[in-house]
């Protein structure tokens, strides 16, 4: 099975969630390993592994089964490593290339299923309204 694990980035999500909004982190769980993407200042992969549903610094909200893969653990690791080469930590962008974009890329390739739209809705709204946002949110990492 392939799961999307979703985490709250703020306690305000308890209120915003019911309106289809919220600021979330996500990771993809397969074969007992969760893969996610984060920012750092180096031109190396920002993809990392954690114990499922226990990503440090985030509050776990829910796990959503998106499908199944026939890849074995070794084949899956090679697949994630090949995708990770396109997700360097210094290319992280809150609106254009965040952890949820990574999760959607992985799940689309693995099970041909997108993540739920509410998970990355705030980033999409932010991109549409970017002319009103501070410049620091419009820059990479």
TrEMBL record:
Keyword set includes Protease: yes
PANTHER family the record matches: DESUMOYLATING ISOPEPTIDASE, IP06716P-RELATED
A Pfam family annotated for this UniProt entry: Peptidase_C97
Protein family: Belongs to the DeSI family.
Record-level Gene Ontology MF annotations: deubiquitinase activity
InterPro entries: PPPDE_dom, PPPDE_sf
GO terms classed as biological process: proteolysis
UniProt-recorded name of the protein: PPPDE domain-containing protein
Keywords: Hydrolase, Protease
PPPDE domain: residues covered: 1-137
Keyword Hydrolase included in the entry's annotation: yes
């Amino acid at each position: 099975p392939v799961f999307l694990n979703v985490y709250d980035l703020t306690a305000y999500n308890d209120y915003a969630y019911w309106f289809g909004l919220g600021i979330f982190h996500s990771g993809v769980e397969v074969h007992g390993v969760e893969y996610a993407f984060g920012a750092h200042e180096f031109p190396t992969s920002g993809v990392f592994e954690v114990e499922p549903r226990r990503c440090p610094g985030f509050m776990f909200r829910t796990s959503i089964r998106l499908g199944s893969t026939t890849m074995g653990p070794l084949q899956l690791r090679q697949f994630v490593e090949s995708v990770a080469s396109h997700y360097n930590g210094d290319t992280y962008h809150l609106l254009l290339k965040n952890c949820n974009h990574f999760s959607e890329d992985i799940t689309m390739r693995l099970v041909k299923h997108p993540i739920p739209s509410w998970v990355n809705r705030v980033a999409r709204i932010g991109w549409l309204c970017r002319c009103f946002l501070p410049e620091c949110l419009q820059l990479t990492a």
